[in-house]
Amino acid sequence: MKIAISGSSGLIGMALRDYCASAGIDVLRLVRDKPKDRRDELFWDYEHELLDWTGLNGCDAVVHLAGAPLTAGRWTEKQRRKIFDSRVKATQFLCQCLEEMPHPPATLLTASAIGYYGDRDDEVLTEESGLGEGFLTDVCEAWEAATGPARKKGIRVVPMRFGLVVSSRGGALPMMVRPFKLGIGGRLGNGRQYMSWIALPDLICAMQHILDHPELSGPVNLVSPSPLSNEAFTRILGDVLHRPTVLPVPASLLKLVLGDMAREMLLASLRVQPARLVESGFSFEYTDLHKTLDIAIHANGF
Q1: What is the per-residue pLDDT for 74?
Q2: Nearest to 16 by CA among 278, 220, 158, 203
Q3: Of 82-91, 100-109, 125-134, 181-190, which range is least confident?
Q4: How far apart are CA 27 and CA 34, in angstroms?
Q5: 245-284 burial string, b = 16+ CB within 10 Å, else e?
Q6: 8 A C-beta contact, residue 42 and residue 105
Q7: 208: closest CA among 7, 66, 25, 42?
Q8: What stretch of H or E contains 12?
Q9: What's the N-to-C CA distance of the chain in angstroms?
Q10: Nearest CA to 254 among 246, 262, 245?
Q11: 70 within 8 A of 83, measured Cβ to Cβ
Q12: What proportions of the chain, in percent to the nearest 5, are helix, strand and coil?
């Protein structure tokens, strides 16, 4: 198998590259910097619509992970545009290139997010659940719709709706650990909001599972089957770190400092289930958060 990966320098992209190397899967990296005559790199620039799609010939699948970070700061208008364009416009351009290919890759796995569902209290959410409300839901809706040209071409398209990825290699966990190490960790707001998470190794195995199961098409939730409230997540994290969890962060303070980002990413309740993965026979290795955090944190000496 040979796959092309965009966003290959991010947390998930690097883990996928490591997995491919160990599994004997050839990787072609889509890169934004001019490659230096490396045969495993292909230059692309969605802003200027630059991509020689002939370089994708021979690829069995494309895994599209590129996108600006959601947690880079307060969502100013400039940051919102960057978040939107780096996902929607980039995906649309890539899919238009795939549409032009006489013999395109059979499968496109593209990143999305459980933010699609919006703040839903304690409602159990599956891939059949409807669209929510908010900036993130608007981004996710347009993001997934941007794959239209690929679907029109007959390519199997799977938008992967990621939950909180638990890994010591990057992402949210190192940022979550810092206040606990200072003894000021605590729940966010009232702590009742659900957090849907997935261990990085399970996420990578789920991606391989999707590639291996052509009957899977359309959105797939990449979360563990064990979502927890923020209060429970906080308590477990504090226990693993041997730190107190007695200083809650008021929702009003989070909204004041971070605005809509706090409202939609830190305080929104998303009780999501991986219904389609489970139905297709995928087996999770990491369903116990305490064990998952213990492995992730102490493996890197946090």
Answers
A1: 87
A2: 203
A3: 181-190
A4: 17
A5: beebbebeebbeebeebbbbbbbbbbbbbbbbbeebebeb
A6: no
A7: 25
A8: helix 11-23
A9: 36
A10: 262
A11: yes
A12: 45, 20, 40
Find tokens 């890759």 and name the residue.
105
Residue recorded with tokens 């890539």: 94
Secondary structure of residue 281 in the 3-state scheme: coil
Nearest C-alpha neighbor of 288 from the set 247, 233, 213: 233
pLDDT of 301 over the 70 cut: no
pLDDT at residue 35, as a whole number: 64
What letter represents residue 7's amino acid?
G
Instruction: Check residue 156 and give its pLDDT.
Output: 98
Q: What is the pLDDT of residue 38?
A: 74
pLDDT (tens digit per residue) in 25-58: 999 999 988 766 678 999 999 999 999 999 999 9
Segment (H or E) for 157: strand 156-162
Contact 101, 56 (CB under 8 A): yes
Q: Two tokens at 272?
A: 């999501």
Token couple for 302:
């946090």
The answer to whether 243 touches 185, Cβ cutoff 8 Å, is yes
Residues 6+ apart with CB under 8 A from 188: 230, 234, 248, 249, 251, 254, 266, 267
CA angle 215, 217, 223 (to 5 degrees): 105
Q: Do the beta carbons of residue 110 and residue 157 sit within 8 Å?
A: yes
- Give the per-residue pLDDT at 37: 64
What average pLDDT score do residues 264-288 get?
97
Read off the pLDDT of each residue in 17-27 and give the average, rounded to a whole number.
96
User: How does pLDDT run across 216-264, given as a tens digit for each residue?
Assistant: 999 999 999 999 999 999 999 999 999 999 899 999 999 999 999 999 9
Do the beta carbons of residue 15 and residue 204 sit within 8 Å? Answer: yes
Backbone angles phi, psi at 232, to 5 degrees: -70, -40
> Which residues neighbour 20 within 8 Å (Cβ) at sequence distance 6 or greater?
3, 26, 27
